[in-house]
Design goal:
two-stranded antiparallel ribbon; eight-stranded parallel barrel; globular
Length: 304
């Protein structure tokens, strides 16, 4: 039986982040991609929610170029067909003002989407028109609260000062975080530990942090994941990609399970109160079968 998202977040949530069809894909191909994702989700009951990304590029001025149709429509279709709740990502930096964010949130609820992940711009050197994520949280939270939904945010373990940003976003209404794709347990554990400490000092309950993992099966994947902004340590890349090509996926899964186990076990040993979960990213259309392998491995690890 599928758990409501509120219940899942109190346990060990498992999210799946599928790639929406390209806006240039032919209708028949887009429909086939949707069917394949629906079949995957139905085959793994342990998946709690669908974390739908907004795929967007930026020019040198920070103006967006959207690579897919509205992810809210994709999320709505997947939710209806799988019985899972959709969590839709939105880069709020690209919206023109706070009023536009409020309109977007209200429209999102009218479309049947109750949960969102609000994301900032990719560069700190660009003066984006939209407000900061903390302000966007404050704007969207009352609208989503009224619909029984949640606001989530992204966190980057390797970024300096990240636990303090997480504390500010939690105060502003974040109900959970999903990390950037990770391959390193140390930086992630240090971030979680410091966030836990800051929450204790602030007498604030920490919210769940979902560790994001993705398939890395060739050098093209490593380059793409780095382009997304994630840190791929050379040692991790070599450990996964060295050897026979057919074993790269298995080594990639093993690495993800090892990182998860390390962060989870160290957090438990330290008595941290931050709930942990997992978000599996598909990263590209060609990785759907690889994402299935990841999801199955974590579903088996977590149990019912």
């Amino acid at each position: 039986m599928v758990r409501p998202l509120a219940e899942a977040l109190r346990g060990t949530p498992l999210f799946f982040e599928p790639v929406p069809p390209s806006s240039r894909a032919k209708p028949t191909r887009a429909a086939a991609e949707v069917d394949a994702v629906v079949e995957l989700v139905r085959s793994i009951p342990r998946i709690d929610a669908l974390d739908v990304p907004e795929l967007v590029d930026e020019n040198h001025e920070g103006r967006p170029l959207y690579r897919t149709a509205d992810p809210r429509e994709y999320g709505r279709v997947l939710a209806e067909r799988t019985g899972r709740e959709a969590v839709v990502n939105k880069v709020v930096a690209h919206l023109e003002n706070p009023e536009a964010i409020e309109r977007w949130a209200a429209e999102t609820v009218r479309m049947g989407i109750r949960h969102v992940v609000l994301v900032g711009g990719t560069s700190r050197y660009i003066p984006y028109p939209g407000p900061a994520v903390t302000e966007a949280n404050r704007i969207c939270r009352p609208i989503l609260d009224a619909a029984g939904g949640f606001v989530g945010n992204i966190t980057i373990p390797q970024r300096g000062g990240e636990p303090h940003r997480m504390l500010s976003k939690t105060r502003a209404g974040a109900a959970f975080f999903t990390t950037q794709i990770i391959f390193d347990a140390d930086a992630t554990f240090q971030m979680v530990r410091e966030y836990d400490l800051l929450c204790r000092h602030a007498s604030l309950a920490p919210v769940p942090v979902l560790l994001s993992f993705a398939p890395l099966v060739d050098e093209q994947d490593a380059e793409f994941i780095r382009w997304l902004g994630a840190d791929v340590p050379e040692a991790a890349e070599h450990a996964i990609l060295e050897g026979d090509d057919g074993g790269a996926l298995r080594r990639s899964v093993d690495r993800a399970l090892e990182v998860w186990a390390s962060v989870d076990e160290r957090s438990r040993a330290a008595g941290l109160e931050v709930p942990l979960g997992v978000n599996v990213e598909q990263i590209s259309v060609r990785h759907l079968a690889d994402a299935r392998t990841f999801l199955t491995a974590f579903a088996d690890r977590f149990g019912a």
